[in-house]
Amino acid sequence: MGTQKITLAKGLNMGLRKAMEDDPKVLLMGEDVGKLGGVFRITDGLQKDFGEDRVIDSPLAESGIVGTAIGMALRGYRPVVEIQFDGFVYPAYDQIVCQVAKMHYRSKGRYKIPMVIRIPFGGGIGAVEHHSESPEAQFAHTPGLKVVACSNPIDGYWMIQQAIASDDPVIFLEPKRQYHADKAELDETATPEPLFSSRVVRQGSDVTVLAYGPTVKTALSAAEAAAGEGKSLEVIDLRTLSPLDMAPVLESVRRTGRAVITHEAHVNLGMGSEVAARITEECFYSLEAPVLRVGGFDTPYPASRIEEDYLPDLDRVLDAVDRSLEF
Amino acid sequence: MPVTTAGFGPDLVEVFGPSQRDGGPDLIQLLTPEGERVHHPELDLDFSAEQLRGFYRDMVLTRRIDTEATALQRHGELGIWAQLLGQEAAQIGAGRALKKQDFVFPTYREHGVAYCKGVDPLNLLGLFRGVDHGAWDPNENNFGLYTIVIGAQALHATGYAMGIQRDGDVGTGDPDRDAAVIAHFGDGASSQGDVNEAFIFAASYNAPVVFFCQNNQWAISEPIERQSRIPLYQRALGFGFPGVRVDGNDVLATYAVTQAALQRAREGQGPTFVEAYTYRMGAHTTTDDPTRYRLNDDVEHWKLKDPIARLEVYLRRNGLVDDAFVDELKQEADELGHHLREGCKALPDPKPMDMFDHVYAEETEELRVQREGFASYLETFEGGHH
């Protein structure tokens, strides 16, 4: 098996295929995941190869998709459901936070819900309302759920398989604007990093920049631009939002003394708030500046003609870096 | 000229008025409130004397579970209790129609079905006492944990049924293998999106599931008229599967109808909606006061339809039970009551540290740190608190 260059969409598709080959109990379910291959084509070709009983085109009902998947998990299956767009997850919110998240606890471990809820998240694709949301904090705030976000094709391939193998329910966030953007070299024989771990993706010494999902690329671009001005940014891809893997973050911030976190979600009570609090608790004496957050504004996601102004971009990240360095 | 919609919908008085208090013309009944056996062309089962006495015993014991638990709540031993008084026939009829391999997805009121499935009723009390969220093992008796969010379990039942389909445990002809699922809920739940979505999924995939609605007329204080403009069982047709209305105070009819519906499911013929037309004689739970929202006249009317009394009349009239049987049963009920009273008080309180258990199958480092931190904190108190 050689290496090949793949997109995130392809990585996820290959990862799902591998998981289905490895375990006959893995099922895919969602709106349009069968013949169409999903609106983003992530499940392309899987129904053809695994049949309608394993790649299930569902009625147009999100609560129904998640709720019936719970029942299938209780019967011993490992359902992977696709929520077509982030803003469509809310009809299933009760099933996710009241049922999926709590069943293991409620049953003292007798029920296992090894279920993955895939959600294409974030903006930047010029979509209409409800198609560009970042609901991660709502799920990370729910005990019993685990929440991860992939940012690149290689992670997409490995993380989806690891999420499916996990005995806990996983909210799996996929940055939709990266689906077909960049290609990377996949080595299927490599050993992946653990699912619930963050990773330093660029080393630096002046400021630690934290990101996940779509903003990892933004952070890396900012680091590249900053390097031209003689500033050295360390970029960490958080990858897992619940649990948070803070060890590499704390190690980095103790070294740099400065941290900026960026995400597309609203700043108010977003992941950045939690990360900033934890850094403050753990690195208080190492900090040279307060932890700064660069995120979406506390507005509903705006009309797409102005979404570029809403989304944190390279300049806003660099501005925060400069403010941090000025303290 | 004003537009009129007359003639386009059912007349509410016709559907819900006094003429329908007996369930309407489509009500399936095998035993009248007066204890007379009536016959039905398709569901005329032969019940053995033993079976009939069994139904009677089950209903008496189920009522005892309910009255003991209600008393325990009044004594402050339970925080709350969801009463089933008046719904014994609906639950025992449905519960006894189940086979070992059938799986139950209950609400929080299915004490009689739990009893039929072999769950120790003492285990039901823990949830209401606040010592756990349900202490029984769902996979031991194929009886799921109580679900409090209204109607959420209808989807779990449907998904589980889809799992049974995928396992090939439907329509094999092997009576010990073919399995079905039953989802219990009330008339209020019929308004929930999840229940309607469950109907759609079950119909679309032909899932082996029986939707068993105990229409007890009241969703706390909201009457059935606030949930539906048509008799509930008629909704099923709109989803593409059969709906039947059975006298929920008639254990024979409830048993016969549920058994037929479960058998359809096991054979691979898909879902059925069973509306057990009954009445909640008590409150929704021990916290509400039904005298605020309903007429005493209604309650008195339904008292005459008592499910236990009518079967007792039938049994006595036909010489199927005697005083000795009834005395023995009373003694059995007393023993059950004692078991619940003493057992409830003896249920151990959970330890504070128990709250950290089973949040995840694979515990997170974050939670481990919180657990240890709280343990250390508790250690600072004299004698320890955990």
UniProtKB/TrEMBL annotation, chain A:
Its cofactor is thiamine diphosphate. This is Alpha-ketoacid dehydrogenase subunit beta. SUPFAM superfamilies: Thiamin diphosphate-binding fold (THDP-binding), TK C-terminal domain-like. It comes from the Bacteria. GO terms for molecular function: magnesium ion binding; oxidoreductase activity. Residues 6-181 form the Transketolase-like pyrimidine-binding domain. InterPro entries: THDP-binding (IPR029061), Transketo_C/PFOR_II (IPR009014), Transketolase-like_Pyr-bd (IPR005475), Transketolase_C (IPR033248). It comes from Nocardioides euryhalodurans. Keywords: Oxidoreductase, Thiamine pyrophosphate.
From TrEMBL, chain B:
Its cofactor is thiamine diphosphate. It comes from the Bacteria. GO terms for molecular function: magnesium ion binding; oxidoreductase activity, acting on the aldehyde or oxo group of donors, disulfide as acceptor. The lineage of its organism: Bacteria, Bacillati, Actinomycetota, Actinomycetes, Propionibacteriales. Coiled coil: none annotated. Residues 57-335 form the Dehydrogenase E1 component domain. Keywords: Oxidoreductase, Pyruvate, Thiamine pyrophosphate. It comes from Nocardioides euryhalodurans. GO terms for biological process: branched-chain amino acid catabolic process. CDD domains: TPP_E1_PDC_ADC_BCADC (cd02000). Transmembrane segments: none annotated. This is Pyruvate dehydrogenase (Acetyl-transferring) E1 component subunit alpha.
